[in-house]
Amino acid sequence: MNTYTTDKIRNVVLLGHGGSGKTSLTEAMAYVSGYITRLGKVTDGNTISDYDKEEIKRKFSITTSVVPIEWKDYKINILDTPGYFDFVGEAEEAASAADAAIIVVSGKNGVEVGTEKAWELCEKYKLPRMFFVSEMDVDHASFRAVVERLTELYGKKIAPLHFPIREDGKFVGYVNVVKQAGRKYIDKGKKEECPIPEYLDEYLEKYHDILMESVAETSEEFMDRYFEGDTFSVTEVSAALAMNVQEASIVPVCMGSPINLRGVSNLLDDICGYFPSPDKRSCNGIAQKTNEIFEANYDFTKVKSAYVWKTIADPFLGKYSLIKVCSGVIKSDDTLLNVEKGEEERLNKLYVLEGSKPIEVPELHAGDIGAIAKLNSVQTGDSLATKANPILYPKALLSTPYTCKRFKAVKKGDEDKISQALAKMMSEDKTLRVVNDSANRQSLIYGIGDQHLDIVMNKLKERYKVDVELSKPKVPFRETIRKNADVEGKHKKQSGGHGQYGHVKMRFEPSGDLETPYEFEQVVVGGAVPKNYFPAVEKGLQECVLKGPLAAYPVVGVKATLYDGSYHPVDSSEMAFKMATILAFKKGFMDASPVLLEPIVSMKVTVPDKFTGDVMGDLNKRRGRVLGMTPDHQGNTIIEADVPQLEIYGYSTDLRSMTGGSGEFSYEFARYEQAPNDIQAKEIEARASKVDKAEE
């Protein structure tokens, strides 16, 4: 692959609903540009961007892949992202590295939830964008319906550049709205001029007016000419479009059929003509030595710096850090500083990744996307720069995982292997999180959704040869008391020789502090229990609060007061007093009206207004208390509620099915509250066997 200067580079992310045809479009663009000689299919599992075993097996994208293609003196880095919501982190990473986006919409299925999500992502990163309506060869595909729905959603910004010509229901050509000319497809996506069928005249007029109106709004001069009835030349229209597309004030709509290679060369021309090169976009970091803003702006004349936007940690491919060069020209023999960690890394080799295939290149100019192998200290989100000019770039904001499951090794002894494998996978996937919940003796894994976690388990098996089973996580209940109790505990053993004797009288009452397990106080008078045994009494308490007598959950909010007891000058020992305390605690706790406390989370659910009623009804079923509703002025309602943690298992799947994937939620731990009697009874019964056991 040739070396390209910044002005000849286009970084384009493909976004859209799962199954809308992003990977097929990537494949078609690679074929039309001559980059590949054989057109792969998603169904056959032989496309360049879906190379992972899981992707081939499931026939959809799981990770973002980079496919660099060359087209008419330009290099286009295509970032093919997964459309399924479980892999949103991949799309977010790619959007942070891109300079423009193509939102792919199925002509058959029309505008879906994933289309709207893709638009929101473009808004977040202020990306210029265009729509590509795929599957135009399919019966019932309607370009017109898609344009109308997009206009409904996003207003006058939407400007169709082409629309289809059909004969006998078949997609045979298109009308170019800018040039007001017809084109008919001949072999392999090539085309020739043809007259515009009469029945399409009204559409041409309509779409041409939309486009001219959009162009007129770009300057006062154009507006005056438009009102005077003047026409714009093709060159003027193209220049105005390019300017407006880059500002995202016009969003063109193109169409085609990637499988038949139709509309693909037009799209490649439009990418080069309308989308900005990286140096037209801003990019700022912080110069560490001066603490001032460094305006990199993808300027190749400035000092070298880059941002790591993605990591691939595949046991077969090895580790690759995918970078976007923010300034300067990075060469293969450079030594760069990992600004985050303060470690220097020698590059040795630079690559561009073509799907899974690394191609060595001598240098990468500002704005280009490439990869570096085997950088030990480098992770996703790190910044690379020279030691003399360290520059730190902000990290991309990725979605937080809230779907949680418990996991454990199927085979004993695999635990270390699993933790190493998961560490590698977390370096690759930043929406994956592992938590060791020692208080409840469980390992937890968090992902975006059930499918995400399912694929993680499959990868562990395939890649790292370890079996892991998932189950419902244990909810961390707590135990406390509501009343007071006054008890004594006596531990007495006489078995020939040295005996054991410990005797305590204690009061137990609620401390009012549910954050702390216990408070210990002693008010012993007259040396009934010698001072040197007080630590042993406290040790007994420390042991007891780890597993309460009610359901073997940790104890909170208990105040214990030692006020009396007795001892034996020979037989008393620390051990005996500890045992006496344990006896007193168990009895006192059970006498003081013990209860189970359950964790409550504060939840925020954002849903389109029309689903508000369904979601609130569902939250009520989950024993949730709705605290408030706020509109976000984008047609959504934010519902805030307190919900018991016990009831939120599986919520991500349920919310998706209720809202067709458009709902989002987040939660955080709020407090502990007394659990209802039926929940307590069920839990106590389920854990009866654990109360007597020392170990779980």
Describe, in plain words, how this protein is organized in 3D.
This protein has five domains: about 10-280, Rossmann fold; about 285-390, Translation factors (Elongation Factor Tu (Ef-tu), domain 3); about 405-470, Elongation Factor G (Translational Gtpase), domain 3 (Alpha-Beta Plaits); about 480-590, Ribosomal Protein S5, domain 2; about 595-680, Alpha-Beta Plaits (2-Layer Sandwich). The chain is about 25% helix and about 35% strand. It is built from 17 helices and 37 strands. The strands form eight sheets. The chain has an eight-stranded antiparallel β-sheet with strand order 18-17-23-14-15-22-19-20. The chain has a seven-stranded mixed β-sheet with strand order 2-3-1-4-5-11-6, with helices on both faces. A hairpin with a 2-residue loop joins strand 19 and strand 20 (about 355-360). Helix 6 packs across helix 7 and helix 12 (about 535-545) crosses helix 13 (about 575-590). The longest helix has 18 residues, at about 575-590. The chain is elongated and about 110 Å long.
